[in-house]
């Protein structure tokens, strides 16, 4: 009976990691720190929150991957993402930092779908939120309803319009119109910080990540990255 139970549990874990197409993925794992290198990128499970539930990740490539997650609470539990590391170029010397994506996010979840850009190692963090639900960015202040107050409103940068939030070493760009697929021109955002509010002075771009900050899923849910690209040089 114990052997049957163990086999059933193992098969269940395997099925959770499969992509929605029903075919076996090239890679899968339920380890919270699982990382898979592919095509110069890293696909990362990154379950780091204070009280996370179960999360399993699968990938066919850095362009096509996803997770099945089951988290509760009101704090970030994980950031499954695709990571482009070791860029190591000064912000004002960048030629191009440009990305496109197509992502499917389940309804009834608390999350943000965002780029996480790191400069001078991990000294400065720049987030670009493309889509989100029932969550707020880090900000210098919040109104009486708990809504984050932008440091700058309606800034047209790199072909999109953003509200910009800032506190400490964290800057967040939130699109005024949310998207689940499209393109983001990251280079002008980084240079805007350097030239307008001057919150840093020509730091070195370390890496660009993109994925979901997952807070609460309301049950077991599938998050899928249908396509992705990122150029940084």
Mean pLDDT, to the nearest integer, reads 93
User: How much β-strand is present in the residues?
Assistant: over 45%
Radius of gyration: 18 Å
Contiguous low-pLDDT stretches (5 residues minimum) are 1-17
Tell me the CATH architecture: Sandwich
- Which series of helices and strands comes N to C? HEEEEEEEEEEEEEEHEE
The CATH superfamily appears as Glycoside hydrolase family 11/12, catalytic domain
Protein model, in words:
The structure is a single chain. This protein is mainly beta. The protein has a single domain (about 1-230), classed as Glycoside hydrolase family 11/12, catalytic domain (Jelly Rolls, Sandwich). It is about 10% helix and about 45% strand. It has helices at about 1-15, 185-195, and strands at about 25-30, 35-40, 40-45, 55-60, 65-70, 80-85, 90, 95-105, 110-120, 125-135, 150-155, 160-165, 170-175, 180-185, 205-215, 220-230. Strands 2, 3, 6, 7, 9, 10, 11, 12, 13 and 15 form a 10-stranded mixed sheet that branches. It has a 6-stranded antiparallel sheet with strand order 1-4-5-16-8-14. Strand 4 (about 55-60) and strand 5 form a beta hairpin. The longest helix has 15 residues, at about 1-15. The protein is globular and about 45 Å long.
Secondary structure blueprint with pairings:
Blueprint lengths: L1 H15 L10 E3 L5 E4 L2 E4 L9 E8 L2 E7 L10 E4 L4 E2 L6 E8 L5 E10 L4 E10 L18 E6 L2 E8 L2 E6 L5 E5 L1 H9 L8 E13 L4 E12 L1
Parallel strand pairs: 10-13
Antiparallel strand pairs: 1-4, 2-3, 3-6, 4-5, 5-16, 6-15, 7-15, 8-14, 8-16, 9-10, 9-15, 11-12, 12-13
């Amino acid at each position: 009976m114990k052997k049957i139970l163990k086999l059933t549990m193992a098969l269940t874990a395997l099925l959770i990691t499969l992509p929605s197409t029903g075919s076996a993925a090239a890679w899968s794992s339920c380890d919270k720190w699982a990382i898979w290198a592919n095509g110069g990128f890293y696909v990362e499970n990154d379950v780091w929150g204070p009280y996370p539930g179960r999360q399993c990740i699968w990938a066919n490539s850095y362009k096509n991957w996803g997770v099945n997650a089951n988290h509760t609470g009101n704090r970030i539990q994980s950031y499954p993402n695709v990571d482009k590391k070791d860029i190591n170029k000064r912000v004002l010397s960048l030629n191009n930092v440009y990305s496109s994506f197509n992502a499917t996010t389940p309804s009834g979840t608390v999350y943000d779908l965002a780029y996480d850009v790191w400069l001078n190692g991990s000294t400065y963090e720049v987030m670009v939120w493309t889509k989100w639900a029932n969550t707020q960015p880090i900000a210098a202040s919040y109104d009486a309803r708990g809504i984050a107050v932008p440091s700058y409103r309606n800034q047209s940068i790199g072909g999109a319009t953003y509200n910009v939030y800032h506190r400490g070493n964290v800057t967040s760009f939130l699109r005024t119109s949310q998207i689940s697929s499209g393109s983001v021109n990251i280079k002008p955002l980084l240079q805007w910080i350097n030239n307008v509010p001057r919150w840093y002075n020509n730091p070195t771009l370390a890496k660009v990540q993109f994925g979901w900050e997952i807070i609460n899923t309301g049950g077991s849910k599938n998050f899928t990255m249908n396509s992705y690209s990122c150029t940084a040089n």
